[in-house]
Design brief:
With 201 residues, the chain is an alpha/beta fold. The protein is built from eight helices and five strands; from the N terminus they run αβαβααβαβααβα. It has one domain: Rossmann fold (3-Layer(aba) Sandwich). Helix content is 41%, strand content 12%. The longest helix has 20 residues. The radius of gyration is 17 Å and the shape is globular. The chain starts with 16 loop residues before the first helix and ends in an 8-residue tail after the last helix.
């Protein structure tokens, strides 16, 4: 349990959520992309970011590798460290949502419990879980970094899909079969799911 510091008092902005929504012309949300390494999460995240920006919506991508190079560079891949990785990312996403932005995250986030924790931090109304579903053999063929081969050779431990589990979402907001759909079609699907949020304040 985290100790409560009674000398800390959260600040309060003078700008209301409604004013931010009117300014940005959308309701904030976190699009949480989950799936195996190689399922296309980062590719979709950046393509979606570009489409949203072209439509005039303020958004940003929180990518797993980028975050682990900076904010979470002190974390490994044991289950407890994966949990802390997701907790920190969810807290950052929640802060960005509070600022009015649309956040797109690209994280394997293999455990159901950890994704539910993220939902709780971000808020159920803002959390949009999208599962990129691709067979592991397809993910391995796409693996230009050779991570799966290294994991199967024992050179990488705690690798999701090989030496660590992946727990698919039981009821995601959307499932995208990324081995069958084009990138453009996948982006269109996500935009359709966000349509009500992009209609303005």
């Amino acid at each position: 349990m985290v100790a409560v510091n009674h000398a800390i008092f959260p600040g309060a902005s003078t700008i209301s959520p409604a004013e931010r929504a009117a300014f940005y012309r959308h309701q904030p949300a976190t699009v949480w992309l989950t799936g195996l390494s190689g399922s296309g999460k980062s590719t979709l995240a950046y393509a979606l970011e570009k489409r949203l920006m072209d439509l005039g919506h303020a958004c940003c991508v929180l990518d797993g590798d980028n975050v682990r190079h900076r904010l979470n560079r002190d974390l490994g891949f044991a289950p407890s460290e994966r949990e802390e990785n997701i907790r920190r990312v969810a807290e950052v996403a929640a802060l960005f949502n509070d600022a009015g932005l649309i956040v797109i995250t690209s994280f394997i986030s293999p455990y159901l419990e950890h994704r539910e924790m993220a939902r709780g931090i971000i808020g159920g109304q803002r959390f949009v879980e999208i599962y990129l579903d691709a067979p592991i053999e397809v993910c391995e063929r796409r693996d230009v970094k050779g991570l799966y081969a290294k994991a199967r050779a024992g050179r990488i431990t705690e690798f999701t899909g090989v030496s660590a589990p992946y727990e698919p979402p039981s009821a995601p907001a959307m499932r995208i079969n990324s081995d069958l759909l084009t990138l453009g079609a996948s982006v269109d699907m996500v935009l359709t799911s966000l349509k009500s949020r992009l209609a303005g304040a």
